[in-house]
Amino acid sequence: MDTIRLLLVGLGNLGRRFCDLLAQKGPEVEARYGLRLLLVGAADSRGAAYDPGGLDPARVAALKEAGGSVADLPGVGRPGWPAAELIAQADAHLLCEASPVHLRQGAEPGLSHIRLALERGMHVVTPNKGPLVLAYQELHDRAARQGVQLRFDGTVAGGLPAIYIGQRDLRGAIVHRIEAVPNLCTGYILELLADGLSWEEAQDRARAEGVLEADPSFDLEGWDAAAKLVILVNGVMGYPARLEDVDRTGITALSGADMVAARQEGRFYKLLATADRLPDGSVAMRVAPVPLPGDHFLARLGRKQMGVMYHTDIYGTLMAAIDEPTPLPSAATMLRDILDIYR
Amino acid sequence: MDTIRLLLVGLGNLGRRFCDLLAQKGPEVEARYGLRLLLVGAADSRGAAYDPGGLDPARVAALKEAGGSVADLPGVGRPGWPAAELIAQADAHLLCEASPVHLRQGAEPGLSHIRLALERGMHVVTPNKGPLVLAYQELHDRAARQGVQLRFDGTVAGGLPAIYIGQRDLRGAIVHRIEAVPNLCTGYILELLADGLSWEEAQDRARAEGVLEADPSFDLEGWDAAAKLVILVNGVMGYPARLEDVDRTGITALSGADMVAARQEGRFYKLLATADRLPDGSVAMRVAPVPLPGDHFLARLGRKQMGVMYHTDIYGTLMAAIDEPTPLPSAATMLRDILDIYR
User: Fold this and answer.
1) What is the mean pLDDT of residues B68-76?
2) Residue of A nearest to B336 (CA)
3) Could you say which of A181, A183, A299, B12 would form a disulfide bridge with A292 (CB–CB 3.0 to 4.6 Å)?
4) Is A31 on the interface with B (CB under 8 A)?
């Protein structure tokens, strides 16, 4: 039995559910994989907790569910202690970086957390898009230099292993074109609009379902889809794509009437992200709402589904999708990544 | 640059195309992965050829395309030499076993080839279902004992990485249910029947397209789908499924009228393979034609598409499909497997 000493930074929706998973799946992971996943440190916006003997993940999850902070954990909580200090001082093998995405703030604090953990020789697992979008190559180079692994399967399309399929199962191929519907929120809202709901009703429903962030513009303006596309193009096409090179249109200019009319013609609006390899070797990237014909693989995605298509030279066209009724699969990508590192 | 010395047994549709791939992709594989894939031996039904310095894969492919045998290759061909002798005597790192599937003959000669290669310490890569269906656990145990890899991604649903997704991307999960449309031929014929063609016309078209084998009963009676289901259940659910435990119904009793009527109701017949984990831990397996509702992921598969769905506890429902206009992706699974072994 190997013990893996974990740090978890960020205890929002994903971090909290990951604690639930650690509690729920711990015995099974020990039995099936011979790995004891020991959460030794955790941090949220109010402070951190560190216990070399291991924190109780169920207790951390319950505390967060009740609106508390790990900083208040008796004996081990340290109010005001920043996550960076935890990463700098803890004895750990692996950092799970699940702090919120802040593309406009230079992907901080996530980017600094990841850099620091890599420099300290920790593996890093993250569903946080920001650092990968802004510093894909730098972070990969750092990980390689340190001989550690950087995994980020959860950054694209929630629990869909889009990155893994693209990197591992397409080895030897040239990927000519990627098409993806990687954002759940916009798909959800577009479906409701096509059902005849107003924009206001659709947004309210999305907010009540927890699929709309407090600041909805990140999703609705296509930034989230563009960020995911940039990661896919870097990771799968091996091209140094940048966010500013994505031709990006959000869904806010669409009317419910557009949506209803499209459906009557057998078409389905999706916020489609595409990447095309051009003859000069560069890659053209676009995010825009597109009325897909009914026989397009991505047209039929349900309300809480995301998908990706890889058009290749030797593996035909590979298509994958996920139905994700709750954020649990997104949180579980951290478990997938960890188990892949220690396979 | 590492040189990987390959043997290829079986030079039918897949083996020949794999030779094409070696010729076409060789320089790229060297540049991207630092691997030189050197075909040192090949065997077909009429004999074998062995050259420690390497056979020319383009020449082997051209020879087979023209109806010849590797046994006739000047200087290196050995007419009448059985593949087993090649495997027993060659100096090689890896066997690609692509001989025809003969489930009714105890999966021979493929099974013996694989056993022999594993015992000689070679890795084995195979799209041949027979040996995996009949001896899944035995072959895995042999490979583990020898410290070598056994890969068989091409056994299920052609170029779709169904096994890889199920084994690697679902780590930590319980797979409650698998649904798959893993056979291309039956999907192709059912689509033509729904378009109004007669059984005879549909079979003729399928034969002309090369998707119907000389003995079509293996596909049409559901044996192929059942065999693939058995491999999926062993590989992904970790349950020792056997072919005789599959409740199997083929498509031959269906009429074109059934198909047309179903489509008018918005339903789509597919030869569906399902596996359900039962409360006692066992797995119930079934292969049967099912009129799927239009919103079922597998209902909309096109004529040359196959797909799989994994219903899991923590990763939601994962769905994957492939559009495979030619057998190239099926042949390319051997390249995928090799590059995964030497990643």
Assistant:
1) 96
2) A171
3) A299
4) no
